[in-house]
Design brief:
By secondary structure, this protein is of the alpha+beta class. It is built from five helices and six strands. The chain folds into two domains: about 80 residues, no CATH class; about 40 residues, no CATH class. The longest helix is centred in the middle third of the chain and has 25 residues.
Length: about 150
């Protein structure tokens, strides 16, 4: 398997280190390099810190070459960590689907009891949430990256 390519739920993925125009470093996974290029040109890759869509690939600060056995152990550990995150969110956050922005605003304004929620929001809804001071975190959905 080529360098940087990982398996996620049996699907080959490549992880790139990216940097936004504001200097924030983050990692993102793609099906292949052409998927990265397509998503970058469409402006749908955004910085998880500032939501900037002006992102480019950057060099990794370091790379440790491992034997195949060590690499497989590392890949398995990463897959287990991702699985734990997905399981935690599924178990502890209520899925409100496309009503995420509306529910988040209700919670923020004290109209409903505070609770952990997850769902989806449009870019316009994200802008409103930021303007209102609603704290939220965007978590990449692996299914989206596979398309």
């Amino acid at each position: 398997m080529e360098e940087g390519v990982k398996l996620y739920r049996g699907v080959r993925m490549i992880a790139y280190d990216l940097i936004c125009s504001n200097g924030h470093l983050f990692e993102c996974w793609f099906k292949d390099s052409s998927c990265f290029e397509e998503q970058q040109s469409a402006g749908i890759i955004n910085c998880p810190i500032c939501d900037d869509t002006q992102v480019v690939k950057t060099f990794s600060p370091f790379m440790i070459k491992k034997s195949d056995g060590e690499r497989k152990k590392g890949e398995e550990a990463a897959q287990q960590a991702l699985q734990l995150i997905h399981e935690y969110v599924d178990k502890h956050f209520e899925d409100v689907g496309a009503k995420f922005a509306q529910e988040a605003l209700k919670i923020h304004h004290g109209e409903v009891e505070k609770k952990n929620i997850r769902g989806t929001a449009t870019i316009e809804e994200e802008v409103i949430l930021k303007e209102e001071g609603v704290p939220f975190l965007k978590v990449p959905i692996v299914k989206r990256l596979l398309n």
